[in-house]
Amino acid sequence: MRSAYRILYFIGLIGIISSVPLRLLDKDAGKLLSIAGISFLFLAIVLIPFLPHKKNGYWGASPRTQKIWNTVGICGTSLFLLGLLLRLLHIPGGTYLTTAGSSIVLVFLLAILYYTVTSKYKTRGVPTTLETLNALGIPPADLYKFTGKYTNAAMPLIITITAVENTLIAQATGQPAFYLYTISSNEFKYEDGGIVIEFPTGTDELTLKQHGGFFPFIKEK
Questions:
Q1: Which of 96, 100, 146, 150 could cross-link 159 (Cys pair, CB 3.0–4.6 Å)?
Q2: What pLDDT digit, counting tens, does each position of 162-175 carry?
Q3: What is the extent of the structural domain holding 19?
């Protein structure tokens, strides 16, 4: 389902972009490309509600925000198709509806682009205040001893632990960074990902706990 969505989305986007210079030259091919592009985007929009659900939204926005933008996209596409039908039937008002509909769809696509791009660089799990992360009041010196890079010989993954003020931040290879909430003096969690990270006392190790699994990592010297 996700692959079908991506194919329809990119074909539609390419069709609309390609139609712009042709329409500026008043070519009929530009109109056909524009119609085809909008049609493919409409099909992609229809598929969005059936995509695998993610807590933070399929393209980075929250589920509620995503639902609002989906409605905007569907309304814009519907206006465009209605205007197109009126134009084919030579009924006045078709041009205005297609223009309004295509403008709304463009805003919808820009919203998707914005949320997709910003979600790639956003640190996950950011709280209202950093103090809520370290509610136990663990001294910064005790937190900084956990910082470093941790590896597992059986996994092509490096977990990097850094500290900002009185909080710890974790980041796995190729993944966004996320803040860790303090559970105890040597245990921390990232609730959205179902992750618990423990630093066994008296060792240079890190134990990653997720979905019932326990994965040991050793700190690089």
A1: 150
A2: 988 788 999 998 88
A3: 2-120
